[in-house]
Amino acid sequence: MVVGDFPIEVDTLVVGAGPGGYVAAIRAAQLGQKVTIVDKADLGGTCLNVGCIPSKALIQAGHLAQSAKGNEDLGITTENVSVDFSKVQEWKGSVVNRLTSGVEGLLKGNKVDIVKGEVYFVDDHNVKVMDETDSQTYTFKNCIIATGSSPIEIPSFPFSDKVLDSTSGLALEKIPESLVVIGGGYIGTELGSAYANFGTKVTIVEGAEDILATFEKQMRSVVTKRLKKNNVDIVTNAMAKGVEETDAGVKVTYEANGKEETVEADYVLVTVGRTPNTSELGLEQVGIEVDDKGLIKIDKQCRTNVKNIYAIGDIVEGLPLAHKASYEGNVAAEAISGQKSEIDYIGMPAVVFSDPEMASVGYTEQEAKDKGIEIKAARFPFAANGRALSLNDTEGFMKLITRKEDGLVIGGQIVGPSASDMISEVGLAIEAGMTAEDIALTVHAHPTLGEVTMEAAHVALGTPIHML
Predict the structure, then answer these.
(1) Domain co-membership, 282 together with 298
(2) DSSP letter at 405?
(3) C-beta of residue 363 within 8 angstroms of C-beta of residue 373
(4) Can you give the pLDDT of all 468 residues of the chain as single tens digits?
(5) What gap in Å lies between CA 332 and CA 303, rounded to an integer?
(6) Same domain membership, residue 225 and residue 106
(7) Helical axes 451-461 vs 419-432, angle rounded to 10°
(8) Which of 272, 304, 335 is the last residue of a domain?
(9) Active-site residue among 125, 323, 444, 446?
(10) 447 preceded by a cis bond (ω within 30 of 0)
(11) Is 323 considered catalytic here?
(12) In terms of domains, do 263 and 293 share one?
């Protein structure tokens, strides 16, 4: 211990101020705990600063750029649409700043102490918090680790000014003429779609049989069709081999169908997944169990094998979703306060802000069948919805999964306009134990996209109104 390093005592120490950490800190403070939150970076974590929020801002700007060109079907055409990308980036930054400053205000308003620095565990009740010049010991009764994740770097594609991770991909100073995306998961597809809408020639190189492999084939095909319509090349069953940086940009080599191919572009964006930020915390000092992927093992209350230390978000098993981290943060804070809160992921939605959007919650058709559940899978197309027709955005469908014996809603999948917003109704139905009849009897305003959910419920009941 350095001279003058007198331990600061807290009830709950939260390590990481992303959407998991700051929510946990606020909830713990609301429950009467003395809370300190520590992060080496900006409040809001990856999500608010270099992930969810800035990417959605960029995606929205891309949609506006695309729609500004007009639509011949509607008799509207526009010439010489221009994009000042520096202003797009400036606006995106303003959105981020408003939210991060809002997080700071919420933490302070709930009397949470905010500390900047890196955390290293000394034992199960003490950490060192270090900045560039000093270190300070904090003694805690309970601790919640919420350190998030970082982009995976492929050895053959070391990050540089032209080989980008998702953070760099969001911060380009001008719209690239061409872009290669390695990895067709949700991050690669979202950013690839955004830049394609700005006019970039995008090539997606994916190792699996299809992009967005965690979603159903019927859903993926709708997104793939739109991407190809937007001049995006999709190469699947392809292995990225390496990259050569040139004066003009990059040459990316990949192998597909037994042949080696090369594609040139201004940049290559590597989005092959994320890795948990657990290796530099000193977890071994405490004996916290970590698996071979670096994920911390937890129980139903987010508690690690060390009873007073909890872990949430990207550093535990499950999809790296901001809302999952926030949900787990609430559970951990309440568990520390003696409440019986437990994690239950059945109502956890997953969303891709592709074009069109994709969303899923609860069981898919195949997952339910694998569990031996007899189901009905009821589909209703956006093409039969008045609001979708008036938006000239009719590709896609809603699929409602109900239990055959009683009509209980156990899942739902949507691909189409505003899928990200619509999925919440299905999530609520699952959490509340509602049936297809409950949804069908709920009056939905007309004309709205939400009517698609009501119509799918009618299909499940065998009483479709606007579909034969």
Answers:
(1) yes
(2) T
(3) yes
(4) 444 579 999 999 999 999 999 999 999 999 999 999 999 999 999 999 999 999 999 999 999 999 999 999 999 999 889 999 999 999 999 999 999 999 999 999 999 999 999 999 999 999 999 998 899 999 999 999 999 999 999 999 999 999 999 999 999 999 999 999 999 999 999 999 999 999 999 999 999 999 999 999 999 999 999 999 999 999 999 999 999 999 999 999 999 999 999 999 999 999 999 999 999 999 999 999 999 999 999 999 999 999 999 999 999 999 999 999 999 999 999 999 999 999 999 999 999 999 999 999 999 999 999 999 999 999 999 999 999 999 999 999 999 999 999 999 999 999 999 999 999 999 999 999 999 999 999 999 999 999 999 999 999 999 999 998
(5) 7
(6) no
(7) 50
(8) 272
(9) 446
(10) yes
(11) no
(12) no
Residues 6+ apart with CB under 8 A from 108: 114
Q: Give the total number of structural domains in the chain.
A: 3
One-letter identity of residue 292: D
Residues spanned by the domain of 434? 356-461
| Structural domain contains residue 175 | yes
**C-alpha to C-alpha distance for 202 and 213, rounded to whole angstroms:** 19
Sheet strands side by side (includes 267-270) = 163-164, 267-270, 178-182, 201-205, 233-235
Question: Six-digit token pair at 431?
Answer: 């959490």
